[in-house]
């Protein structure tokens, strides 16, 4: 059985493999195939002329990949071809673990800056500190590399060593640190206790997301007695999506029964429905879900299911509006095909493609002075060639995709905390399950 995957929002590289349908002699299918062969002959002729006559010898593999990419980008922004390397990277991202060092990094002043070493990982044990600048990787200068290049060099086989040359504030000279790579498990769910409220942020939907969520719930319950626990904030802002089955499992953790999501393909009979099982892992406590223009795909499935069932109140701004399903089709040593094969629908029967999830309580997050004037709005309806949704209106989808780094500046989060604590009130909170909007 093929695994369905809802992938990250945004315009992705496009590519595809060709499938020619053959029919009987004189049939419409045969005529179509004959015309297709003629078009392929034109492509072959052009490819050969470019290969043999272009002013400099072209990279033939790159030519073919770009041709495939062009074909798929004409379909929609999310269908694409992944060569073997890109397919492996995708598998690593969705698996949620890889061979590496255990540091969160960014690029600053042409060097790799360590944001934080992850606890109990090789980098932390070797003494790498937040704020360190990595100047060399195995003796190779970082200047001139992209962040992706540097990350690729730091990842690798488990139990292999790597030498980092670090510039550290207060140190008289560069520091050489040898780190032995190990399995790094990326937490898909980050949590903390906000006095009497449990806060959980789902960063993406990988193979680890549901297990991480269950672990977070258990840890929060250990720290806050049931009679003191006011409820939970589930933060889906800036969450680009991920695996469909994980979105279903996360929704199921909150729902006791009913439909979570359905997918509908090209054939009207090609409908899949995913239902919740009995049991509410949150113990029936109030839940507020935060969304914004960076909430897409799998995160919209969760928000839509909880909203339609009136299990949670959705707070924030309009979500991205990516309501399509991409199937990953392995192509052996040639990589994989990511192909849009269906649209998904919330329990009320609505497609959010090109529209997004409209929050029950709209709360804008102001931009800091340094970002004012910049367009941070993200939405599926803005993507060239996107599939037009049946619910898509003139306003389109999406909103600003910004979350302040400091919780004290996070107006949306603090609004949610005030609602849970009864400091603020709103007709949409707590939601009434008796008013659930479902497609019966």
UniProtKB/TrEMBL annotation:
Cross-referenced PROSITE patterns: PDZ
Molecular functions (GO terms): endopeptidase activity; serine-type peptidase activity
Stored InterPro entries: ClpP/crotonase-like_dom_sf, CtpA/B_N, PDZ, PDZ_sf, Peptidase_S41A, Tail-specific_protease
One of the Pfam families matching this protein, by short name: CtpB_N-like
GO biological process: proteolysis; signal transduction
GO cellular component term of the entry, any: outer membrane-bounded periplasmic space
Keywords, sorted A to Z: Hydrolase, Protease, Serine protease, Signal
Domain PDZ: 87-155
Region (Disordered): 371-408
SMART domains, alphabetized: PDZ (SM00228), TSPc (SM00245)
Basic and acidic residues biased stretches: 371-391
Signal sequence segment: 1-19
NCBIfam families reported for this sequence: prc (TIGR00225)
Stated family: Belongs to the peptidase S41A family.
Protein's recorded name: S41 family peptidase
Source organism of the structure: Mesorhizobium denitrificans
Lineage: Bacteria, Pseudomonadati, Pseudomonadota, Alphaproteobacteria, Hyphomicrobiales
């Amino acid at each position: 059985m093929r695994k369905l995957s809802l992938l990250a929002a945004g315009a992705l590289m496009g590519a595809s493999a060709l499938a020619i349908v053959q029919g009987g002699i004189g049939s419409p299918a045969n005529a179509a195939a004959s015309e297709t062969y003629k078009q392929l002959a034109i492509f072959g002729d052009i490819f050969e002329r470019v290969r043999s006559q272009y002013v400099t010898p072209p990279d033939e593999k790159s030519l073919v990949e770009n041709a495939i990419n062009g074909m798929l980008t004409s379909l929609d922004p999310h269908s694409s071809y992944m060569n073997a390397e890109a397919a492996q990277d995708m598998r690593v991202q969705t698996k949620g673990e890889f061979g590496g060092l255990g540091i969160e990094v960014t690029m600053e002043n042409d060097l790799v800056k360590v944001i934080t070493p992850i606890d109990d990982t090789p980098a932390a044990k070797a003494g790498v500190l937040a704020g360190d600048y990595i100047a060399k990787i195995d003796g190779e200068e970082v200047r001139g590399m992209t962040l992706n290049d540097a990350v690729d060099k730091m990842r690798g086989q488990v139990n292999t060593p790597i030498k980092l040359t670090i510039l550290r504030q207060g140190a008289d000279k560069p520091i050489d640190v040898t780190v032995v790579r190990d399995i790094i498990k990326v937490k898909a769910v980050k949590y903390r206790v906000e006095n009497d409220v449990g806060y959980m942020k789902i960063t993406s939907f990988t193979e680890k997301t549901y297990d991480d969520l269950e672990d977070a719930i258990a840890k929060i319950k250990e720290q806050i007695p049931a009679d003191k626990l006011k409820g939970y904030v589930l933060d889906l802002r800036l969450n680009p999506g991920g695996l469909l089955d994980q979105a279903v499992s996360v929704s199921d953790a909150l729902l006791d029964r009913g439909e979570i999501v359905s997918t509908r393909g090209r054939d009207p009979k090609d409908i899949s429905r995913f239902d919740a099982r009995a049991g509410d892992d949150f113990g029936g406590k109030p839940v507020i879900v935060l969304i914004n223009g960076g909430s897409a795909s799998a995160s919209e499935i969760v928000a839509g299911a909880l909203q339609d069932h009136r299990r949670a109140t959705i707070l924030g701004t309009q979500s991205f509006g990516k309501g399509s399903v991409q199937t990953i089709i392995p192509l052996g040593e040639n990589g994989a095909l990511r192909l849009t094969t269906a649209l998904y629908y919330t329990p009320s029967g609505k497609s959010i493609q090109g529209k997004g999830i409209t929050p029950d309580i709209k709360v804008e997050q102001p931009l800091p002075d340094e970002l004012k004037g910049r367009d941070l709005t993200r939405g599926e309806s803005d993507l060239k060639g996107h599939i037009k949704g049946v619910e898509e209106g003139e306003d389109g989808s999406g909103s600003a995709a910004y979350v302040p780094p400091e919780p004290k500046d996070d107006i949306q989060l603090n609004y949610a905390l005030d609602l849970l604590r009864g400091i603020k009130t709103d007709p949409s909170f707590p939601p009434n399950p008796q008013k659930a909007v479902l497609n019966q």
